[in-house]
Amino acid sequence: MKEEEMKRLIEENIPETPEAFHDRMNQTLNSIVVQERCQRMLETKNVPVRRAKRLSFALTAALSLVLMAAVAVAAVHWNLFDHLFGTTPENADQVMQSVLCKQTVNNVEITVDEAGYDGKTLYLQWRYRMLDVEQPLGDGETGMTAEAMQLLDEHNVGWWIDHIWINGKAIDMPANSAEDERGSSVPGEIIKSCSYRLDNENLYLPDGQIDIALPIGERQPLEAYSLIEHPEMYDEDGALKLPEKGMVAFRLSTDMRSKVKVEKPEQWTEMPDVRACVSEVTYTPIMMYVNLTMEGNPESLAKFIEENGEGYFDENGTLLWPYSGMDVYGEWASGLTLVDGDGKEVFPNLQEEYGYVYGCNGYGSEEAEYLFPYLESYPAEMWLAPVEEGQADMTKAVRVR
Questions:
Q1: Claim: this prediction has a pTM higher than 0.85
Q2: DSSP, residue by residue, 73-136
Q3: Among candidates 54, 218, 208, 190, which has minimal Cα distance to 126?
Q4: Contact (Cβ atoms closer than 8 angstroms) between residue 124 and residue 196
Q5: 73-84 average pLDDT score
Q6: Strands 269-270 and 274-283
């Protein structure tokens, strides 16, 4: 069959794709060889749907494979997770939405192109594209350069105050949040990705429409928002009211309440230096969050101080901070791995296969948090345990379920 005839049959037999699918295809199919030939199909609007009486089996199979590959790639590839996690988690489409708003400020096109909420974490990605900058500002793989940020500053555009607004209420970036900023291969483009751990501020978004505003438009003078000089700009809780200028706002739809499951094992494990229990496990469509509570043994800390000194000192001999429980049992807490009832790792080669965000997400003397990927079915019995050379030490394990 001639190429022109194949193109005609494709255009006549494939209906118009939804806008969201079209956008996702444009982002993710650049590496597929057949994209060039199928581009008209994906970009055509208002094409009458006409059914040919018959297609050859080979052509039908070819079209099916193209569409199946497109759907598969579109369903799993989100740049935000690639930037923050190193890989896109399973079920990301249940959480994420694409291209929520686009506007141009001072010759900079600002696009909020990916956003979502999994019941605990708010995920946001936006792009600045300076329309008068002709050179690429990066390769999409490495971090931001000072020169790229200087170019954005010269347009008087970008992040100008340390808050975001959710349903009109200001919130700072909570603990255990993350961000990533890098230039892309698109001329003049900078990509910013963020995760906001809203649960650490005891904030859980309800199902429905959520209004989000970001201070990423035209930069505003901070003195105009001084609490001392302009108290009328602050609410009764001392939080800055939603500014009228310099904002980029959009609406996000969420439906996570019925999709998030919480368990509270609270089974204590007693060890010489510390006693610990998993206080809460949260299962979302894309991730498993495990919260560990710890109570250190005062005698163990006293012995550690006797053997190692009072704490950390600077070069002048001034005590910066004293030793604490994390110095005694922090290595144990940071190295815990998820295992089943037989002591086998639930996720062997966790970070290599699933991304560098997983595992211990932070710890202190009293608490630690662990992140693990989504599974359709988790083992009926699970523990956090130290593992060496593939062998779990269950005498130092804490029950997860």
A1: no
A2: HHHH--HHHHHHTSSPPTTGGGTEEEEEEEEEETTEEEEEEEEEE-SSEEEEEEEEEETT--SB
A3: 190
A4: yes
A5: 76
A6: antiparallel
